[in-house]
Structures are given as structure tokens and as C-alpha cells.
Design a protein that fits this description.
alpha+beta, Aspartate Aminotransferase, domain 1, 37% helix, 25% strand
Length: 118
């Protein structure tokens, strides 16, 4: 069930209350998804913020105790010469962000997001 934009904002508020250190990372990555792929919709699902294109899951952002995970539904097919993406599933890959916003640039999150929604 895709939830309303208000639910995403409520989820962001919860992240800020409970994981203040990761809020800026989530907000930054969320902004990158929406700026890079303006035709995406977003929802709170599976405990995180997911992004959909034509009702198909494209990626998501999930907060864990020690990191933020940026996940890509078809990440296994991405061009990733430096092996930034983690995971061994048939399709999905993710990037773990443990530090500050600088890690978003270091791990080329924008490049990966661009591949998620050509």
C-alpha cells in the first residue's frame, strides 16, 4: 500500500527524533532521488522510504542502528567499476552510509541513483 506524502514527512520527523545523526543523510539522499528522477513517487514501506516509478520499486532509504542503507532494486545491473555497491542478491544492491553527508559524494550515490531511473 503506497502511503501519502504526509506519511513520508511523518517518517522523516520520526527519523529526526530517533536518529538525529542520520536525518541529514536521509534528507540529502531523498532529495537526490527526487531531483535526479523527478517522475518518481515515494512512500513509507518496509520500514523506510521507497521510490517507485510506474508503481515499480526503484530504490529506497532505510535507517539502521549503525548506518543508513541506500538500496537499488536493480543495482546488480549498474555500472560499478569501483565495487561501491554491496550485496550478492540476484538483483538488489545497496550502499551503507555510516558517516556524514560527505560519504554520499565519496560513494557516488548520485551516479547510482541516475542509473536507477534512466
Amino acid at each position: 500500500m503506497v502511503q501519502s506524502k504526509g506519511s513520508v514527512e511523518a517518517h522523516m520527523h520520526d527519523i529526526q527524533k530517533h536518529s538525529f545523526e542520520f536525518h541529514d543523510i536521509v534528507a540529502g539522499v531523498r532529495s537526490l532521488f527526487l531531483k535526479t528522477c523527478p517522475d518518481l513517487s515515494e512512500a513509507v514501506k518496509y520500514g523506510g522510504i521507497v521510490f517507485l516509478k510506474d508503481r515499480e520499486l526503484t530504490g529506497g532509504i532505510f535507517v539502521y542502528k549503525e548506518h543508513v542503507s541506500v538500496e537499488f532494486s536493480h543495482g546488480a545491473s549498474f555500472h560499478d567499476p569501483d565495487a561501491i555497491l554491496e550485496g550478492k542478491g540476484k538483483y538488489r544492491r545497496h550502499i551503507k552510509l555510516r558517516g556524514g553527508l560527505e560519504e554520499v559524494s565519496e560513494k557516488r550515490v548520485t551516479v547510482m541513483i541516475a542509473q536507477a531511473c534512466p
